[in-house]
Amino acid sequence: MTLPMTSTPILQFDSARISYFIRAGEANVIPDLSFSIAPNEALGLVGESGCGKSTVALAVMQYLGRAGRVTGGRILFEGKDLAQATEQELRQIRGRRIAMVYQDPMSSLNPVMQVGRQLMEVPMIHDGVGEEVARARALAMLREVKLPDPEQVMQRYPHQLSGGQQQRIVIAMALIAQPALLIMDEPTTGLDVTVEAAVLDLVRELRTKHRSAILFISHNLGTVAHICDRIGVMYGGELVEEGPIRSVFANPSHPYTRGLLDCLPTLGRDKHGSKLKPIQGQVGSPLKRPPGCQFANRCAYVEIGRCTTAPIPSLEVTTDTDHVVKCVRWAELPPRSREAGEGAAPQMVGKIESAVRVEHLRMYYKRTHGLFNTGGQIVRAVNDVELVADRGRTLAIVGESGCGKSTLAKVLAGLETATDGDVTLSGQSVGHTAIEDRKPDLKRKLQMVFQNPDSTLNPSHTVGYAIGRALKRLKGVGGAAARAETERLLEIVKLPAAFADHRPHQLSGGQKQRVAIARALAGDAEVLVADEPVSALDVSVQASIINLLNELQTERDATLVFISHNLAVVRYLADRVAVMYLGKVVEYGPVDAVFKPPFHPYTEALLSAVPQPDPDASHARIVLEGSPPSPTAELPGCVFASRCPRKVGEICDTTPPPEHALAGGHRIACHIPVADLVRLNAVG
Amino acid sequence: MWRYILKNLTYLIVTMVATSFIVFALTEATPGDVARKLLGAYATQEQVDSLRKEMRLDRPLLERYVEYVGNLLAGDLGYSLRYKTPVNDIIWDRLKNTGLLAAVAFCFIVPLSMLLGVLAGMREGSKTDRAILLGGTVLASVPEFAMGVFLASIFVVWLGWLPGTATLVPGEWSVASQMVLPVAVIVLFDMGYVVCMIRASMIETMQRPYIRTAVLKGMAYRQVILGHALRNAMLNPVTIILLQITYLVTGVVVVESVFAYPGYGRMMLEAALFKDIALIEVGVLVAVVVAVGTQILGDLGYRMLDPRIRL
Predict the structure, then answer these.
(1) Cβ within 8 Å, pair A122-B217
(2) Of B86, B115, B147, which marks where a domain is finished?
(3) A122 touching B, CB under 8 A?
(4) Which helix (H) or strand (E) holds B50?
(5) pLDDT at residue B136 above 60?
(6) Pairwise CA distance, residues A593 & A664, whole Å
(7) Cross-strand pairs, B279
(8) Are A318 and A60 in contact (CB under 8 A)?
(9) Residue after which a domain boundary falls, among B66, B86, B106
(10) Best label site of A45, A556, B170, B284, fewest CB within 10 Å?
(11) Are A260 and A647 contacting, i.e. CB atoms less than 8 angstroms apart?
C-alpha cells in the first residue's frame, strides 16, 4: 500500500521558543527549535535529563503548566498553530488526534478507577458513543496490545496489574482513538528489561498497523534505535544533530552525540578493553545561556572564538539524507574509534582469596495482608544461594525486579538477617548478625551504596558533616583530623574539597552519588555493596561513576558487590556474575563465561532483550510469556519453568534442576544437558 | 472484611472494659473515699461510715467492679447524684439532644467543606483558593466561645433575630430557631479545619500524573475534577471527616455551655465537676463507643473509596 503524498507534516516546530517563568527569572528551556515529523514517521529525541525533551512533548500537548509558555515561533499540528487553538479545539485534539504514553504507567492511571472504564472514556468523550460501543472498542484494543483475558482485565484496578500490563493499558488508551500523532515519553524507563523488550516489540508492531506518526522521547539510545526512523539529539534545548537513524548511528557528527555513544557500556565492552568516556561537566542552566554553542563548555573539541561567539547554524552532513548537525567543527573532528580509552587491563596476579562467601543462604519473610497481620504467607526472597566474592574483584548480581538481589544485599549489609545458611566476611560469620549488633570493625569493613543518592543523604546536613560522622562512627576520627580526612575522601571520589561545606541540594545526582561513595569509604571499607548505584543517573554521569568504582577497586583492592538490572553495565564492570531469578541463582560464573554460550535459558532471554544502540542489531528476541510466579508459591521444580521458552517437559516442574559445573567455576542450573545449551543460542 | 469488623468489635469491647475499669479504679485512687465524695466535706464521719456500709465499699475493688459491670449489662446504669435521678433517665435524653445538634451540623459541614475544599484545591494559588484558605484559617483559629459570643452579639443583641439560649423548650422562640446559633458556631469552627484538609488533599491530587492523563485525554476540566480528582482527593480526608463525629458528640462542651444547650457535653462537664461517678462512667463508655465506632466507619469508607485497601 502506498501512502498518499502530503506536503503537510503531522507535527512541525517552526522556530519555537519555550520558557518557564520562575522566581529567578525567565528560564528559556527551548531557545529556537525547528523540526518536523512526516505522516507515519517515528522521530526519536534523545539527550540527558534537563535538555528539554519532555518540554517538547508537553508543548505539543499545550500542557506546560502555569509557569510555562511558548514565547515565540509556532508549533504546528497538521498545519494548524496549536498556540492559537481554543480550549475547546485543544480538547478535540488531545486524546483523539494526539495521544500520549507516559513514563510511569502506574502513576499515570487513576488508582481508584477500573482500567476498562479509563479506556472507555476516550471513545465516549470524543465520539460520543454509548457504553456498549465504547466497551467493545476497549476490548478490541486490549486484544491488540495482547493482554490475556481482556474481559477480566477491564475490571481490574491499576494496582492489580504488573508494570508491563499497565503500560500496555496506557498504550491501548493512547491508540484507541487512532491518533495521527503518538507521543511516547520514556515509555519503557523503569520497566524490567524483558518487559521493556516486549513493550518495544508491541510498539513496533502497532506502528505498522495504525500508521500513527510517533514522537519517541528516551534517554536510551538502544530503544530509540529499535523504534525510530529518524533521531534528534537534544542538548540545551537545541537539536544538535538530526537525521535518519542509520546515518546518525553510522556517522555521529556532533561531539555530544559521540559522547552519548561512547559513554554507554554495551554488551560488547568490558573494563579490560576500554574505559568508558563520560561527558565532562553537566547540562547548563537555561537561565544563563552562552552566546555560541551550548555544548562548548563540555566539549573536548571546543575552539574558543569560533564555537563561543555566535549561534551555531545547522550544517548538512550528507546532502541526500538531510542529516544535519549544529557544530562548526564537525568536519574537522578526528575519526571516531570505539577503542578510544587506554586498554590498560589490570593484571590479575597473586592468590585469589575470597572476601565474602555466601553459603546456602536463605532469607524468608512473612507477607502480611491488610491492616493487620492476617493470612501470612512465606516469601522466599533468597532461596539457597551460594556465591563467592573474590578480594579486589567485582561480583555482580543481576536479575529483574523481585528476583531477590536487593534482599541478598540487605543480608550482606546486616539490614536483614539470614533465615538459614550464612554469609562470611573474611572468614567471620555475619549472616545472622544485624547491623546494630555488628562490631565497629565489622561495620567498617563492609559498607553500602544505595540507588537513590537523593534520599540517602540528609538534606539538612552538609557533605562534610555526613562524611565526618561516618569517620567518627567507623574510625573514631574527629576534629581537625576529620576535616583533613574528609577532604582526602572527597579527593578520592574526585570532588573539590570545598564541597565539604555544600548541602546535598547544591549537588547534581552524580556528585551526590560520589559523596555517598566517599562516605562508604570513610572507614576504609574492604567490601562495598552497591545496590543499583548508577540506575538513577544519566548515562554520561553513569559512565563516570562506573569508572570511579573501577579505579577505587584497582587502587584500594576493594571488593565490590554490584547489584544491577542493567546487563550492559554488569558486562562492563563485573569479574563474576550471578544471574538470579525468584530467589535462586540460575547461572553463576566468570563474566566472560556467563555472557557467552552455553547460557541458562533465562540469561539467554535477558541478553536478547537488551536494546542495542545499533539500528542494524538483530532483533531475535526471546519474549518471556506471562509474569514470574508469586514468590510465595512453593515450586518443587525449576523456578523458571513456568516461563521458560526451552522447557524440556514435566521434569522441569517437578524436579529441581541439576547444577552443571563448567570450567572456571561456571555453574548453570538447568535440566537441559550442557551440550544442548551450547547449541541453543539465539543471541549469538 | 467481616473478619475486620469482628476484630474491631473485639477491640471495642476490650477498650470499654479497660476504660471503665480505669475510671472505676480512679475513684478509689483519688484522695477521700467514694462515700466521702458522695456526701461532701460537711458530712459527719458516722454518716460516711453508714454510707460505706450501705454501698458495701469494704469489699475488694475487683468484686465491686464485677458487680458494677453486671448491673450495667442488666441495664442498670446507676444513680446520678448531680441530677438526683437514675442515669438511664438522663443520659439518653442528653445524647439525643447532642445527636440532633451533631447530625444537623454534620449535614452542613460535609458538603460545604467538600465544595469549598475542592474549589480551593483544584487551582492552587488562584483568587478563590486564597480567599477560601484565608477564611478557613481565620474560622479555625477563632475559639468556639469567642465565635459564640460574637455571633450572639450580632444576631441576638444587635439584630434581635435569634434567641441567645437553646434550651430546647419551645416558648417565645421555636426549637428550630434556637438551634441556629449553636449549629452555626460548630459548623463555622469545624469547617475551617476540614476545608483546609480537603484543600491540601485536592492540591496533592491535582499534581498527580493521572490527572494529566485525564486532561490530555481531552476531557473537560469539570469532568476531570468530578470523574478523576474528586474520589482520589477524598481518600485521606474521609478519615478526618469521620473523626469529626467524635468531636461533634463528645467535644462540643463549650458550645453547649455558651448556649445553655441541654446536651451530653454539658452533662459530662457538670458530672465531672460534681464527681458524679455513675454518670461519668457511662458517659466515658459512650464516648469510647462513638470513637471506636466512627473509626470502624472511617476504615470502611476508606475501603469503599480505595480499591487498593483490603481489610
Answers:
(1) yes
(2) B86
(3) yes
(4) helix B45-55
(5) yes
(6) 8
(7) none
(8) no
(9) B86
(10) B170
(11) no
